[in-house]
Write a structure and sequence with these properties.
single chain; alpha+beta; 1 helix; rod-shaped; 34% helix; four-stranded antiparallel beta sheet; 9 strands
Length: 156
C-alpha cells in the first residue's frame, strides 16, 4: 500500500544550515589564508628593499675607503658618527648621519645615500689601529629600519 503523502525531493532546512555553516568556514579560512599571504609578501618586499638600500650605502662607504690616503675622522682607536677621508683625485669625502638620512659630501655637494623608503636610525664609524700583521681598519655599524648592518674595511 502506498502512503498518502507524496515524497518531495530536496534538502531539509537543517541540512541547508549545516552546508551554509561549512561553506562559511571554508570561505573564512580561504580569506584568512589569502590575507596572510599578502601580509607576508608586503613584509618580504620591505625587508628586501631595506637590504638593498643598506647594501648600496655600505658599498658607498667601501668606495670612499678604497684608496683613501688618510682618515681624519674618526681618529685611530676611536668612534664617531662621521667619516672623513682624503682620496686622490677626488679630495675630501665625508659620510655622516643627518637626522634619518646617511649623507655623502664630496666637492661641496651633499647628497643623501638613502631613499625616503628607509630611515637610518644609527651610524657609527670606528677606526681600528693597525696591529701587525693585521692592517688598520674602519668598522661601520648602522641600523636601518630597525635592522643592523655592518662592514669592516681593511686599509692597505
Amino acid at each position: 500500500m502506498r502512503s498518502s503523502t507524496p515524497r518531495r525531493a530536496g534538502f531539509t532546512l537543517v541540512e541547508m544550515l549545516v552546508y551554509m555553516a561549512l561553506l562559511g568556514l571554508l570561505m573564512g579560512g580561504a580569506i584568512l589564508a589569502a590575507y596572510q599571504l599578502l601580509e607576508d609578501a608586503t613584509a618580504t618586499r620591505i625587508r628586501v628593499n631595506t637590504d638593498e638600500e643598506a647594501n648600496f650605502m655600505l658599498r658607498k662607504v667601501d668606495w670612499a675607503l678604497s684608496g683613501a690616503t688618510s682618515i681624519s675622522s674618526p681618529s685611530a682607536g676611536s668612534s664617531g658618527d662621521t667619516l672623513t677621508v682624503a682620496k686622490p683625485g677626488i679630495g675630501s669625502i665625508t659620510i655622516a648621519l643627518d637626522g634619518t638620512d646617511m649623507e655623502i659630501t664630496r666637492g661641496g655637494d651633499t647628497l643623501p645615500l638613502n631613499s625616503a623608503n628607509v630611515t637610518v636610525d644609527s651610524l657609527i664609524f670606528t677606526q681600528i689601529a693597525a696591529v701587525p700583521p693585521v692592517p688598520a681598519a674602519v668598522q661601520v655599524s648602522t641600523t636601518i629600519n630597525g635592522r643592523s648592518y655592518g662592514l669592516t674595511k681593511y686599509l692597505r
